[in-house]
Structure formats: C-alpha cells, structure tokens
Amino acid sequence: MLIHDGLFAWEGFGGVYQLAAGKCRLRILDLSRGGQGKVAHMKSILVVVSDIPADHPQFRKVSVRSCAGHIATTVTKKFGIDPQRMIYVEYYPPTTYGDRNQHVIEAKYDLVDFTWFEDKAMHPKWRPLPSPLRAVLARTISGGQVSEPSNR
To answer: How far apart are CA 150 and CA 86, in angstroms?
Structure first.
C-alpha cells in the first residue's frame, strides 16, 4: 500500500549555509498492507528515493546517493519508521541517449544497507536489489500504483 509519493526536502548541515540540503522524489510503501496475500515481511516498509529529473536543475544540487544516510535518517524520523523494518532503495529510471534516443540505459534499483548508530544511518553499502523485490517494485512503478508526484 502506498503511504507517500511526492517531493521530499531535507535540511543540510552548517547552519545558515545548509550545505548538502536538497530535494528528491520519495515513495514509501507498506508491504504488509494492501492485500498482498499471506506473505509476512520482516522488513515491510519500502522507501524508494530518486533524483529529481534534470528539467528541474534548481533542485539538483546534490544526489540521493551522496546524501543516502542523511535522507534515510530524516525519513525514519519524519514518518516514524523503525529502521530495522525498512528497505531503502535508490531508483534510477531508464534513460535514452543518442541523436535519435536509440540507446537505452535500463532502470536501476540499488538496495542500500546502513549501519544504524542510535537513530542515525551511517556507512551506506550499495548492492543491486534482489530480483523478486525488483520485479515487485518495477510492476508497482509501471502499473500506476506509484504515480508521478502531483507537485512536480
């Protein structure tokens, strides 16, 4: 079940300078709700972050990859998510290139594992999202359940 889908802003560091402040696309799904059947999930909250497309260059100051720990920490606090029950994924949509956009770079789903110190996500480690969950997420994104945010 979709809990949140929209733009998400996080505060930076350094007081008035707000170093590393930024915005991203944030989608939160609760895999334990929404009639998915009889499967119990140990990590039932799926947090998916994406960079904002380049047609909004004013928001592209920092990437979700460079601020992964800070974003994960902020999301768990703001939405009351238990970090031990959360799956954190960076989603990079497919892109095309070439003079006729004839070349395609497939969508990429990176699972990010954190070491949690008290309530802070540290030491992110990236790996490809396992196939079963990647297929579920791809169907969810392409099937319209997770739509474009209204304030894009």
So the answer is: 25
Reported for 22-25, long-range contacts at CB under 8 A and 24+ positions apart, including other chains, are 22/59, 22/61, 22/62, 22/67, 23/52, 23/59, 24/49, 24/50, 24/51, 24/52, 24/64, 24/71, 25/49, 25/50, 25/51, 25/52, 25/149
Question: 135 Cβ partners below 8 Å, 6+ apart?
Answer: none
Q: Which amino acid is at 12?
A: G
Buried b (16+ CB within 10 A) or exposed e, 109-143: bbbbebebeeeebeebeeeebeeebbeebeebbee
d(CA 20, CA 13): 6
pLDDT given at position 27: 94
Question: Residues 2-42: pLDDT tens digits?
Answer: 889 999 998 887 667 677 788 999 999 888 876 555 556 66
Are 88 and 81 in contact, with CB atoms under 8 Å apart?
no
* Cβ-Cβ contacts under 8 Å for 150 (sequence gap 6 or more): 6
Structure tokens at 3: 């809990």
> pTM of the prediction?
0.82
